[in-house]
Structure formats: C-alpha cells, structure tokens
Specification:
Layout lengths: L2 H11 L8 H13 L3 E5 L6 H8 L3 H7 L12 E5 L5 E5 L6 H7 L4 H7 L13 E5 L12 H9 L13 E8 L7 H23 L3 E8 L5 H7 L9 E4 L3 H14 L2 E4 L14 E3 L4 H16 L3 E6 L8 H13 L5 E4 L4 H6 L8 E5 L4 H17 L5 E5 L7 H10 L3 E4 L8 H14 L10 H19 L21 E3 L6 E3 L3 E5 L5 E5 L2
Parallel strand pairs: 5-6, 5-7, 7-8, 8-9, 9-16, 10-11, 10-12, 12-13, 13-14
Antiparallel strand pairs: 1-2, 3-4, 14-17, 15-16, 17-18
Helix pairs in contact: 5-7, 8-17, 11-12
Length: 524
C-alpha cells in the first residue's frame, strides 16, 4: 500500500486530534478545511427541497436547518447549504481553474475513480459550479512518478473519452409487468395493451432485419415473482430491462440494473426516486415538478409580452394550483405582469374589465376539469362575439386532450393551447395508420385512456430497440443522437446530476387552430 493511500485511509478513520506526525497534520488540515461540514448547491429548474435531499442522501429537515428560508420557497438560482454527510461520498463543487487531474491529486485517487462515481462527467459537464461525487470508500493508489505533464494530459483526457460500441447481434429484452392483476382489471388491460404495442414495434424492426428476443414476465402486484425471475442466470445477459409498476417493484429492478450494468426503462410512473442514484435508468414519464417548471418556462417564452390573466375558482376547484404557483413565481422573478380574476357568477364582466385591446389576452384557469371549462367557455365566446377584433388564447393542461371530442370546436374558436408530455393527434396519418394496424392485429380498439398505452409501448419499444441496434447496449452517452418522431411520445433524456440516471424531459405545446387543425411543437 502506498504512503499516500495509507495516510488517507488513516485520516478517514481517526479523529483529527489523534494525528501526530507533522506530514499527517498538514495533509489532514488541508483535507478538512477544504471540505467543510456543508457544500453549496445552486437550485436548478424543476428542483424541490425534497428532490435535492434525495440527490445528496440527506433529510429535508437537515436542509431546512441550514436554510430556514427554504421552508417557504426556493427559486431557480438560489444557493443552498447542503450538509456534507460522512459516508461513501464527499460532494465537491468545481472551482475556477480546477481540472480532473487536480481533483484526483487533491483527493489521493486516480481520475478513473472520479469518473466511475460520476458517469455523466464529460468536457461538457465539468463546469464551474457543478457538483461531483468523490468516492471516499473506493480510493485507489493515485498516479505516482513518471512525467507529471503526461499524467495530467492522460487524466484530463478522460473527460473526452469515446465509448466503444458493442455489436449486438440479437437484442435481448426483458419486460416485467403485472399482466394478470386480479385486483384491478383496468390496470391489467393497460399492461396488456402496452405489451401489444411493444410487439408491434418488434414486428417493425424485424422487417428491417433487426433480431430481437423478448422475454415477457408477469410479476403480479408484489416482489416475490421478481425475486425468482432475477435469480435466473439468463437475466444477466439481457441488454434492456423494462417494467415495474409499483415502488417496491421499481426499487428491486433498479438494484438489479445497477449491480449488473443493465439499462433499465421505467415506463409509467413519474413518482420514483430511483433515477437520482442509478446511472442506468431511463424514466419515460417526467416527474411532476420538472413538468410544471418546463411548462412554465415554455409559457413565458411564448406569452411574456401578452396580457396574462389567471382564473381561480371561488368554490375551491383549483387542482392545478402547483403549476399556477410555479408559473406565478416565474412571472414575478422575471418582472412579467399578470392579473387574477375569480370564476364567480359575474366572471364574464369581471374578466372583460381586464382584457387588453392591443395585446393578445392569455386566460389561464387554475383547474383542468370539465366543470371549470363549462363555466369559462361560454363567457369567453360571448366576449369574442361582442368584440370581433379581440385577440384571445385559452391556455390549459394535458387532460384537455381527453375532452377534445367534446370541446374541439370551442378550443379552435378560443385558440386553445395546452402543454402535454404525451400527445397524439387522432387526425394525423401516423395515428390513423397505427389505429388501423392495431385493430387488424388484435381485433379491438385502443383503450380510451390518456396516454394510449398501446402507442406508449410502440414508441418506447421502437426507440430503445433502435438505440441498441445503432449504438450498442451501453447507449447512455448517445441516447439523444437517435432521430425519432413518435406517434404519441418523443424522447429527450437528461441526467438529473453527474451521477444520476436519465429522465425524459420532452414536452409539447399543442395548439388548436381556427381552421380546426392542430399544431404540436416542442418546448426547447
């Protein structure tokens, strides 16, 4: 064991006051003074105190203690003190002029050790202010001897590493879902429909000469079946793992994925913490806090110069209050004016007094229900009838696509726009073709749900199979290099931090045009 490694291990296990030697005292003093009891985290879009606590494996209360104001609200750009817990990792904020080689020398380890703890670290992400993990429990012998300039060059070049692409002749996929649920027939039908869409995707790629071996498992509502399945040695040979519906199932599959270096797709839930600490995860459904934040960003980008009017319901029907809170906070932070009005008995006259004759007027309800729409739409149409030159937009929510058959003409009249993370225009040629092929294949129609689970299975299957076929089984660094236009889902994956997995951050703006056509655009 090298002298430096022995010294570091000693420092990690002995109290500071027990260090006697002059050399050890100096190194220990440097180590502890440069890594205080807390580090600083800059709040990014979509983050909450809870998500930050999960990211760093500390409690929400510990963050509150160091940052009392965070109990009330946190904003993008705020700096929070995060307790530096003793454990497997230290968290280091990259400083000006720091390099990977310099950090490796500082923490007595090889650059490869730091890279292994931060799979997302690259030239693009090694930035001032970004935080990386230092693996104190995996310290290896640092680079010693030789030409220092050459050592520095080799270490820093790790950030520009090019991943080798493994050739996959037959793509092995395991799909684990509760197909036989006795407790919930509706959920069972959705799982079956997802599988059917996935099988349609496999048929498409097989016609193009791609070989796929799909293993399908019914895992029920618990984890007992999963435990038995994962003991099968063949499971370690798969290239892609998809599935899990409940939290305990997702945790078990995530652990298997992490231990065996297998890419894992979480197809449904948006409410899981697993992506924070498993670099192999790809979460298809964006977490709600990220969704609201990105939708607010897209709204401001599009309507910042318009007359914004937020409508609240005096009866308490405000089920989108979290989005409204996010939106109003962003508007205030950017000094963009907005007005509020209550959806009461005199709504038409109340909102009339707030309208602008020289700006577009954007009306934003705080609830996505048909009850609220049925109150607002007649009043807004009356205002348009009485003021033909009035420019007006009704802005809303993903659930509105479920009401499209009922309200499509009204949406077109009111220039309605809503954000959506899944969307399929039923009048598009691709959607019509899919509906037709699904019916021909299974002799029944897709379920009347949002999203359409058959389309979700199809888009997810086609996207990830093509990723593996093009880039190999370790496709994480190439996940956004595939050009894919989905029928209902598109994909743009981003890491939550330098050591996390990926979440799909794709979000649409869907607009009903006056000619009853529909335009879908990406929020970039």
């Amino acid at each position: 064991m090298s002298k430096q490694l022995l010294l570091l291990l000693t420092l990690l296990t002995l109290p500071f006051y027990n260090v006697k030697s002059e050399e050890a005292f100096y190194t220990c003093q440097t180590f502890y003074t440069q890594e205080p009891s807390f580090f600083l985290h800059t709040v990014e879009r979509g983050q909450t105190v809870y998500s930050i606590s999960v990211m760093y494996n500390v409690s929400v209360e510990d963050i509150y203690k160091l940052n009392p104001a965070s109990r009330v609200v946190i904003r993008i750009g705020d700096t929070l003190k995060i307790p530096q817990e003793s454990g497997s990792y230290l968290y280091h904020t990259i400083q000006p002029k720091e390099t990977l080689y310099g950090l490796a020398q500082k923490y007595f380890m090889k650059g490869e050790d730091i890279i292994a703890a931060n799979p997302g670290l690259s030239v693009e992400t090694f930035l001032i202010g970004k935080i990386i993990r230092i693996p104190t429990n995996m310290v290896t012998t640092p680079i010693e001897g030789g030409n220092e300039d050459l050592n520095r060059l080799k270490t820093n070049s790790l950030l520009s590493r090019v991943f080798s692409q493994d050739e996959v002749n037959t793509i092995n996929i395991a799909l684990l879902l509760p197909f036989g649920l006795k407790e919930n027939l509706q959920t069972k039908n959705l799982m079956v429909e997802y599988l059917e869409g996935f099988l349609m995707a496999i048929n498409v790629v097989k016609k193009a000469g791609v070989s796929v071996n799909l293993q399908v498992y019914d895992i029920g509502a618990g984890t007992g079946e999963i435990s038995t399945i994962l003991k099968n040695g063949k499971m370690k040979e798969i290239h892609l793992l998809i599935g899990g519906l409940y939290d305990n199932q997702i945790r078990m599959l995530s652990r298997f994925s992490k231990e065996n270096g297998i890419s894992y797709v979480i197809p449904f839930t948006s409410q899981t913490d697993e992506p924070f600490n498993n670099p192999n995860i790809f979460q298809v459904n964006m977490p709600q806090s990220n969704r609201h934040s990105k939708a607010s960003y897209g709204f401001i980008k599009k309507y910042a110069k318009d007359n914004i009017i937020i409508v609240t319901d005096e009866t308490g029907a405000n089920n989108k209050s979290e989005f409204i809170d996010c939106l109003t906070q962003d508007l205030q932070d950017k000094n963009i004016p907005y007005q509020t009005v209550s959806l009461g008995g005199n709504f038409q006259n109340s909102v009339k007094g707030l309208l602008s004759s020289y700006q577009n007027n954007v009306i934003v309800p705080s609830d996505d229900s048909t009850k609220v729409l049925s109150k607002m739409i007649p009043a807004l149409k009356n205002l348009l009838d009485s003021q033909p030159n009035l420019s007006l937009t009704l802005f809303g929510y993903p659930a509105w696509q479920v009401y499209s058959a009922r309200y499509s003409n009204d949406f077109a009249r009111l220039n309605a726009t809503f954000y959506a993370y899944f969307y399929s225009d039923p009048n598009s040629s691709d959607a019509k073709t899919f509906y037709s092929n699904f019916y021909k294949t299974y002799s029944r129609r897709l379920g009347d749900t949002f999203p359409k689970y058959g389309m979700l299975g199809y888009d997810t299957g086609l996207y990830f199979i093509r990723l593996i076929n093009n880039f190999g089984s370790h496709f994480g660094d190439r996940v956004n290099d595939l050009r894919y236009t989905g029928i209902q889902s598109d994909f743009y994956f981003e890491r939550l931090n330098n050591w996390s997995g990926f979440i799909n951050t794709n979000l649409y703006m869907v607009n009903y045009n006056s000619d009853n056509s529909i335009t879908k655009s990406f929020i970039k």
